[in-house]
Design goal:
It comes from Lolium multiflorum. By secondary structure, the protein is of the alpha/beta class. The chain contains 6 helices and 18 strands.
């Protein structure tokens, strides 16, 4: 039986007539002819969505070069292309969702105004993401060990394990990570690379099969800069309150010196009232917290990980707000 979503069409020629007046373009389920690309000129286009489009690398680059005021780029399930290169002087947000239908690499070559790189779900096809130049990048994630290679400026992550703890990115203020289980040393290894981080999301997804490898052990005599002076909020989604989860959270309770909030998105089968809550405060050693201003907030609800990122309302300051 044929999948109706697999049926594709040629991009209609009417796009050429409308291109000069469009502010938002959503193109999907079609083959993008190479001969169209040089003729497309989008002088007013602010948002471009490409979903299940068959497009060559050259055609993709030509389309972007015709978008003179583009601010937001959505990419999902692109076909028949093994490499995408993004260069744009105006782009502020890139949203990726299951980027390649086959195998491929994304290179963000030149994006001087890029503020957000949002990876909703990368799938198994994305072999590498390279951010060559994005000096204003502030919001990054969801990142997981499922991506074999992630590179930003001169910092390389192999399966989310940084190749060096000496290389750092100062622009990133909000970071979202996804793991199969609490991996404190793995997360701390990453935090060393983002010394100015203000908000951290950690989402646990038990269905993930990939874990971090070759992680350095945390050395308490070598402090992590963001924990000393910048990190204000930590959000933990799918918190269960068991030994591993408590140990993970307690580290931030006892070591994050300027933190204001630690938010616990508790799995829905856990009762957050009564004795369970009392036990959690005791095990987390709240009374000896490093920041006297720190508040612990618990909320029960859905454990689903597909609602961790809001890509619909790009005016909101924090696209990961729906985690909690």
């Amino acid at each position: 039986m044929n999948d109706p979503f697999e049926e594709r069409y040629l991009l209609p020629s009417s796009v050429l007539r409308l291109a000069s007046s469009l502010h938002v373009a959503k193109i999907g389920f079609c083959d993008f002819p190479k001969e169209f690309a040089p003729s497309l000129y989008f002088p007013l286009l602010k948002q471009l969505h490409l979903w299940r489009v068959s497009i060559s690398e050259d055609a993709f680059c030509q389309v972007l070069s015709g978008c003179h005021v583009l601010e937001t780029l959505f990419l999902r399930e692109l076909r028949d292309v093994g490499r995408l290169s993004v260069s744009s002087p105006t782009l502020r947000t890139i949203v990726i969702h299951n980027l390649f239908k086959g195998k491929g690499e994304l290179v963000i070559k030149e994006a001087p105004r890029l503020e957000r790189l949002l990876t909703h779900w990368l799938g198994s096809g994305t072999e590498a993401i390279r951010v060559v130049r994005a000096p204003k990048l502030q919001i990054l994630g969801l990142l997981s060990p499922c991506v074999p290679k992630f590179e930003i400026a001169n910092l390389v992550f192999q399966g989310l394990t940084p190749s060096s703890s000496k290389k750092t990115i100062h622009s990133v203020k909000v970071l979202a990570l996804m793991f199969s289980r609490p991996d404190l040393n793995g997360v701390l290894d990453i935090l060393r690379c983002f010394p100015c981080l203000e908000k951290l999301y950690v989402i646990w997804d038990e269905y993930m099969e990939t874990e971090m490898k070759n992680v350095r052990q945390y050395d308490p005599v070598d402090p992590i800069k963001c924990l000393e002076s910048h990190l204000k909020v930590v959000v933990l989604k799918n918190y269960r309150g068991g030994e591993e989860h408590v140990a993970f959270a307690k580290f931030f309770v006892l070591n994050a010196k300027v933190i204001k909030e630690i938010k616990f998105g508790v799995c829905k089968e856990v009762d957050i009232l009564g004795k369970w809550m009392t036990d959690q405060h005791r095990m987390l050693e709240v009374e000896t917290r490093a920041s006297r201003d720190a508040e612990l907030k618990f909320k029960s609800g859905s454990s689903r990980c597909d609602n961790c990122l809001d890509t619909h309302d790009l005016s909101i300051a924090d696209p990961f707000h729906c985690c909690f």
